[in-house]
Amino acid sequence: MELNKKITPFQFYTLLFLSRVFSMVTYIAGIKEKLSTTDEVLASVFTGVFLAVSAIPIVLFFKNDNESGIIKRASCLSESFSKILCVFYLIEALYFGIITAVRFGVFTGSVMFPDTNMAFFIFIMLIASSYIAFKGIESAGRSAVIILIPVLFALFFVFATQSDDFDFLNFSHPFTDKITDIVSSGFYSASRTGEFAFILLLTPYVKKQKGRHIFLWITAVMFLIVITEIVLAGVLGRFGATQLFSMYSLSVLAEFGFIERLDAIITCIWLLCAALKIAVIIFLCETLFSSLFRKRLKLLFISISCIIVFSASIPLINNISGFLTIIRSPVTSLLFIIGIYVIPSVIIIAEKIKRRQKR
Amino acid sequence: MKKAVITLILISLIFLTSCIPQNTEIKYRLVIEGIGIDYDNKKNLYELTVQVLEPGNTDAEQGKSSSPVTNYTVKGKTIAQAISSLCENTGKYPLYSQNRMIILGSTVTGEQMIKALNFFVREYTSRPDVFVAAASGKASDILTTDVGSEVPAKLTESEIELCHDNSLSVDTELYNTVNLTLEESSCFTLPLLEVAEDRIPDGKTVKITGTRACSKRTDPLKLSAEETQAYLFIMNDVKTGSISIDTEKTAVGLDIIESKTKTTLSIKNGVPFFLIEVRCKVDVIEFGDESFLAFNEKDLKKTEESAGRLIAERMAGVLDRFLKNEKCDIFRFGTRIEQKYPELSEKMNSDDLLSSIDYKVRVTIDVGRIGQMTIKK
Asked: Which parts of chain B register pLDDT below 50?
């Protein structure tokens, strides 16, 4: 991989944080298991636990070498292995790109512009994201830091203005549902954190990355997810489970004095996260294509990635059942397990064996 | 590249804003202010009264006070069918985001009520915080009451908010209603609206006369204004308000400044026991004695005791009526039991559980201020 400029860990993890915020605000309630309100909160705690556990192989992976990405490390072991990894992560990146584009389409098409054809919106979004990706990771990193402030403000506004409507009676008795359902829901939510793969692949673009940065990011994500679930359960109660995007319903209720009906602005701010997330994914696809073909044809690879994401997401936007079938399928979890647990562990073990053989 | 992107953004602005004809202009929109739902049990049809804002109707220049709204009446097997017939008749598209309230007529009861609300929970532009109210008669009567140049739905919305602030009415939003219908044991409460005589001759107005308790299982029940206040005390939903009490000497007027209710659940003698403790701060605003200097410290104490007793009695009355007689859990006690003692709610059916509930009400009143007049020792 040819490197242009590196970004700071703060910029990089802000980018990942905003990317995860988008997944959170477009979370479709009850997509995996329909849990009672308190069990949803417990599932979010389990999500945090799974995120922390998932960080362990990544931290171990970067213990000895925090400069090279997973593809470079794999190519030191075997060229063909690195090519296979390129293809695998490319599929994973495109999969998350398609899911993000569809989520964006379904979200805006359901709550913002119900009568509009979303294909055009997705097209515009992809163009904007491609431009960011074309400019490189540095522009995405800088944009993330700027966007972070309004995003946090919008979230804080939504949470802080709900205190009057918060009712502890909306919480069910803990463990009303089966513990296996709660844990599996927690794991499903964690497996939607495709940002772990970004860490493995984009590390060469980050200055002096350390393990504590990953854990700080996970703490921030976990904190946000748990707080969101508590507010959702306390304010919306069981009504939250009836809504396609419960976080949006929560934003509709947010008002402070004469300041009301800000949901359109709040959701627009959240959608900036989608642009950044897709930009990072397209940038990732471009670097993986470059590694695969050993050529740096930026515009071509970005265009190919965009076309794939666009053409795959369009049929799914107006077919909610098809979209739900895909995200309910074990594909997300499988990609997560292989990409985050299996591959880094295999490389760590192979490197150890290689080092021993050298001795 | 930069120029190309800027050009694309500029072109996209044309398509994303109202510059293109396929975006619906405001004059082709039915800006819905309120919806009244009645049900024709003979024909099994919903009768919808849709109040639509007509900005062109305001004739301020000529000083005329014509109504700024038009009420449409449509029928349908479903709410969606009725609304779509309205669209066909008017050639306009409905916009629910401005809708202030959904009024359910007395004919919309039980499961019919839940079914009627389904459309508004699902509809894209409908908001979860829209008020839901009940009409003592037909919902259409509430919306069609002539209130001059005011928007009737807006006026009724303000009245519900004001009455709730004065602890005379509940204020139920759509999401609260849905939430409570999803709770197995709970019933939900709606402000009860009635068309009444106005102060001006031949004038009519919409008034809140109490509360309607509804559920999927039972027939609707009415709570009077006094019962509503007691209910709000139980639910820790009293903001301000006023109480009039009779002491040995005279009638006393009190203003509620703040109130806090703490409900503790425990198991006593094998049955759920609720201890409901109210701590209320009041101001004395009137002490109707013939002498201006009659109010003394003893009276102050007696006022506190009498007010406490009165509120406690009213609360006990509402609790007795709804738990023992009507078996309608408007207090979410079943949910509290399910939350703390799930095994108990599993063991007993909800009716038996409700009638087995034991409770104690404790009300403490603290007088904060006594107005501008002095107090004798």
From this structure: 60
